Amino acid sequence: MDEQFILRVPPSVAEQIERLMNESAAGSSSNPEDASLDLSFSDDGRSGTFMIGNKSFPASLLDLPTVVESYKTYDDSFLVKAADIGQMVMVREDVDPAPEEVEYKHGLTPPMRDARRRRYRREPDLNVYMN
């Protein structure tokens, strides 16, 4: 199975990535410097930098609250499971604050908002039963 992760970027960065992919698919690239993407992490493995062209953005590696399955197809009729995705790289603007926790408390879609609190049972308080 492949190793995969979710890459969540701001809308302005998403437009640049889409433009780069369209240019590379068409075979026309005006400047190779503008067509570069790079993702590097610091020693802690959780914070890093996402570079697109000459612009850099802060990035954070976050754990998702649930495992997401990824599928791919070779013939547009049968799906084959490609990977279990448990982490997300969140790229943000310089002015946005860094996430405080290691786990992203929301899932990828609106119904999974605050998934841990709403969907999973709380740990029982064992001190109540000891008395």
TrEMBL record:
Subcellular location: Nucleus
Assigned keywords, A-Z: Nucleus, Transcription, Transcription regulation
InterPro entries the record matches: TAF7, TAFII55_prot_cons_reg
Cross-referenced Pfam families: TAFII55_N
Keyword Transcription annotated: yes
Residues of the TAFII55 protein conserved region domain: 1-129
SMART domains in the cross-refs: TAFII55_N (SM01370)
Transcription regulation among keywords: yes
GO molecular function: RNA polymerase II general transcription initiation factor activity
GO CC aspect terms: transcription factor TFIID complex
Biological processes annotated in GO: RNA polymerase II preinitiation complex assembly
Family classification: Belongs to the TAF7 family.
Protein name, per record: TAFII55 protein conserved region domain-containing protein
Species of the source: Aegilops tauschii subsp. strangulata (Goatgrass)
Phylogenetic lineage: Eukaryota, Viridiplantae, Streptophyta, Embryophyta, Tracheophyta
